[in-house]
Design a protein that fits this description.
Structural class of chain B: mainly alpha
Number of strands of chain B: 0
Oligomer: heterodimer
Order of helices and strands of chain A: EEEHEEHEHHHEHEEEH
Distance between the termini of chain A: 45 Å
Radius of gyration of chain B: 23 Å
Strand order of the largest sheet of chain A: 6-7-8-3-9-10
Distance between the termini of chain B: 38 Å
Number of helices of chain B: 8
Number of strands of chain A: 10
Shape of chain B: elongated
Largest sheet of chain B: none
Largest sheet of chain A: 6 strands, mixed
Order of helices and strands of chain B: HHHHHHHH
Strand content of chain B: under 5%
Strand content of chain A: 25-35%
Largest interface: A-B, 42 and 39 residues
Structural class of chain A: alpha/beta
Number of helices of chain A: 7
Helix content of chain A: 25-40%
Shape of chain A: globular
């Protein structure tokens, strides 16, 4: 049952109704992502990459077409099964960090474990371990407002790993961070990818991200413009990195 | 790493009640003053409710005691008048509208939080449960304090009318008043939950992507 493809989209179309007109954010996207891959989805603002990200992450329903995650057709899943998928299979990281402001770092990290039904001692143990992994062991009891942007994103990464997901979806994870902090976050993601074999799918327009990606998917006007493997990219990256 | 990834394992997603209570308490604590204002709205409505009903309970008890001395020309002695019922109902309606309004705000400003929770695996009903718990707490607290306030103020007012006789016939009316206070606490909680149900339910239905797109 488990194939090597972990995420597959077939003819995914997403339409938004804006007043009287219908806006097509995605115009039929076919994409296959293998287990353990580090994928960057690149494209200008408004290209539909965030929409595609939402479709892959089961955060929104496509108007037409299907999305499979580990051979499960998202359209056929009940809301409870979707919740289960989000809880166990997928870890999410956002540009705006999206930590729950009233909770401490540790509580944020352990929240998905509550939903997963893990006992409170186990939660604490695992939460601390995850925070240590992202270098925030001694900040466990701090609220998000007491942490810097980079630290908040680290907490978000720790949270995304809470239930050992097989996929991590990162929507512009470095978008709100400075160059160096962004670089740290990227290498942290790469580390997870290499050590834990987690599939990383990241919507981004951060060129630093290309360095670590196995493949880059370019989205333009709601369609896949081209897909490039890392080897084809190296020269380009060298060229553009200088401009940063 | 992904030990759960093979096979269509369907582990039940859950939110134990104790955890839900902890989370909603936390949310209330962090927005202490805002919660207090909502609570104060319920408090006033319920205080009025208890004061009116207790007032009539007291005057009935007192008039029984004084039947020989005074003729029954005191309108309050005949129980709660239609006008008073009207006032009570109005004040409770204002309560519900106030709660619905503040819950609407509380829910709207937390769309992102709701979306995030759903990303982490929360079911729609967890979201509804958390908000109803929050408003239920506010309702209960407001109603409890409100019924004490209502009771005290009617005692003070009655003290003026009846003097120390009021305390002598304490056993005659206190049971009735306690009953009203109990009803008021329950009512306050229910009203708060009713006021919150709509906004909470609607927010929980949103797909996470949409909930998180909202910028405030």
């Amino acid at each position: 049952m488990t194939s090597d493809i972990t995420v597959k989209t077939e003819g995914v179309v997403k339409e938004y109704r804006m007043g009287g007109t219908i806006l097509q954010a995605l115009k039929g996207v076919d994409l296959e992502i293998s287990r353990g891959e580090y994928i960057s989805i690149m494209g200008p603002s408004g290209s539909g990459k965030s929409t595609l990200f939402n479709m892959i992450g089961a955060l929104d329903k496509p108007s037409r077409g299907t999305v499979y995650i580990d051979d499960l057709n998202l359209l056929e899943l009940s809301p409870a099964e979707i919740a289960w998928l989000r809880c166990w299979k997928i870890g999410y990281i956002f540009q705006t960090f999206n930590l729950i402001p009233v909770m401490t770092a540790l509580e944020n990290v352990t929240l998905p474990m509550i939903f997963a039904g893990i006992s409170s001692e186990e939660r604490r143990k695992r939460g601390i371990k995850l925070l240590e992994k992202v270098g925030l062991g001694e900040r466990a009891d701090h609220k998000p407002t007491e942490l810097s942007g980079g630290q908040q994103q680290r907490v978000a990464i720790a949270r995304s790993l809470a239930n050992n997901p097989s996929i991590i979806l990162a929507d512009e994870p470095t978008g709100n961070l400075d160059l160096k902090t962004g670089r740290d976050i990227i290498s942290l993601l790469k580390e997870m990818n290499e050590n834990e074999n987690v599939t990383i799918i990241s919507a981004t327009h951060d060129l630093k991200m290309l360095d670590v990606s196995d493949r880059v998917v370019y989205i333009r006007d709601g369609m896949v413009e081209r897909i490039k493997a890392r080897e084809e990219l190296d020269i380009e990256v060298g060229k553009v990195e200088g401009q940063e | 790493m992904a030990q759960e990834s093979t096979g269509p394992v369907r582990r039940q997603i859950q939110l134990p009640f104790s955890e839900a209570i902890k989370i909603s308490f936390q949310s209330l604590k962090i927005r202490f003053w805002r919660s207090m204002i909502t609570t104060a709205g319920i408090l006033l409505g319920i205080a009025f409710f208890v004061a009116v009903l207790s007032g009539s309970e007291i005057s009935q008890a007192m008039s029984k005691r004084e039947t020989i001395v005074t003729t029954i020309d005191n309108p309050q002695a005949e129980g709660v008048s239609a006008q008073q019922i009207w006032l009570i109902v109005m004040s409770l309606i204002v309560c519900v509208v106030g709660i619905a309004n503040s819950m609407l705000m509380a829910v709207t400003e937390r769309f992102r939080e709701i979306g995030t929770m759903k990303c982490l695996g929360a079911l729609n009903r967890f979201v509804v449960e958390l908000f109803l718990l929050e408003s239920g707490f506010q309702g209960l607290t407001g109603a409890f304090i409100g019924s004490l306030v209502g009771f005290m103020s009617i005692m003070l007012l009655s003290l003026k009318d009846y003097g120390l006789d009021l305390f002598r016939s304490f056993p005659d009316y206190i049971l009735g008043i306690l009953m009203y206070m109990g009803i008021a606490c329950f009512l306050g909680m229910i009203l708060a939950i009713v006021g919150a149900a709509g906004p909470a339910y609607r927010a929980a239905q949103l797909p996470p992507a949409e909930a998180m797109r909202v910028e405030l």
